[in-house]
Design a protein that fits this description.
Length: about 325
């Protein structure tokens, strides 16, 4: 575990964005390192498993919420808007986590070999749950992390490790929900097809009739099951996608508020400003300046820490290492 935590700290120190998130060349693998508690972090997750290695994070997914602590693996079983807040982190013991997006093709293939579960009704389908992390998952995560130092090995070895990771998930306490998610005839599987359209075309107006048809449901049934699973209407879901992406564009790519608004599909900057303020509790420009200010302070603190670590240790301290 310690070597895995050190690998995450090393990689994120070089590649993380202003919110501590680092993507990787391994498809579906990302990680997070934050050295202090945070305010609300908004995102839209695809189905994934998150291994919390250190610290703690309060997470709200739809109508469900809980605190995820070190040693737990959390599962988000649908494409869901998520509000997270780091509640336990420090410079000496930062919040560390690894996330792996689930591959529906792998899940469906493995499910066919393992057998079909008892069909679940929508009310039985949890969207967030956590259990103690199993050693097999940590082993897969460690081997995926090792590939980051051998990029030429990623396309050769990562598919097999990902397949193994999905097998252990399907063999563990998450299995029934994952098999239901992988079933294309389940409500979750059918809604996933509609959500894929919203994700791909969130900048455009997507008729709800098209989404319902893709899910193979009547309009009434589609609205009911969509709201039950995501806690949002299709229109609210698309709005969330737009606002989260606009915030990312401002923070990570330097877009102005108006340019970000138009980039994600808004036709009115004033409407964008109103809806952004409702979600993030501040107008776009002020929110971006506040977060950029925090990230600048964090960068300075990390630089000071690295500088102090580069100085020789006193003999009395060095002997304790």
């Amino acid at each position: 575990m310690n070597s895995l935590k050190q690998a995450v700290r090393t990689y994120t120190s070089r590649h993380a964005n202003s919110r501590g998130m680092a993507l990787t060349p391994v498809p579906g693998l990302r990680m997070m390192c934050l050295e202090a508690p945070t305010g609300d972090l908004h995102t839209v997750y695809k189905p994934l498993v998150c291994l919390v290695l250190q610290g703690a994070k309060h997470v709200i997914v739809g109508r469900e919420e809980r605190v995820l602590s070190a040693g737990e693996s959390a599962m988000v079983s649908a494409d869901m808007p998520v509000v997270g807040r780091i509640v336990q982190a420090s410079r000496s013991a930062p919040y560390l986590a690894i996330a792996v997006e689930l591959d529906m093709a792998i899940l469906r293939e493995l499910t066919a070999h393992l057998g079909s579960p008892r069909p679940r009704r929508p009310s039985e389908m949890p969207t967030l749950f956590a259990v103690d992390t199993e050693a097999a998952l940590l082993d897969c995560a460690s081997r995926l992390m090792q590939l980051l130092d051998r990029p030429e090995a990623v396309p050769l070895l990562s598919p097999g490790i990902m397949r193994e990771l999905h097998y252990w998930l399907l063999s563990g306490p998450h299995s029934t929900v994952l098999q239901t998610l992988a079933d294309p005839d389940s409500h979750a599987g059918r809604l996933a097809a509609a959500i894929a359209i919203l994700r791909a075309e969130y900048r455009s107006r997507v008729p709800v009739e098209r989404l319902a048809a893709e899910a193979g449901m009547s309009l009434t049934s589609f609205h009911k099951h969509f709201k039950h699973m995501t806690s949002l209407t299709p229109g609210q879901y698309q709005k969330r996608l737009r606002l989260v992406e606009a915030r990312r564009l401002m923070l990570d790519e330097g877009f102005s508020a108006s340019n970000a608004a138009f980039e994600v599909g808004y036709e009115s900057v004033s409407q964008f400003t109103r809806e952004y303020g409702r979600l993030f509790q501040a107008p776009p420009k002020r929110d971006a300046m506040r977060l950029q200010g925090k990230s600048s302070i964090l960068v300075e603190e990390v630089a000071k820490t690295k500088h102090s670590m580069s100085r020789p240790l006193p003999a009395s301290v060095a002997n304790q290492a």
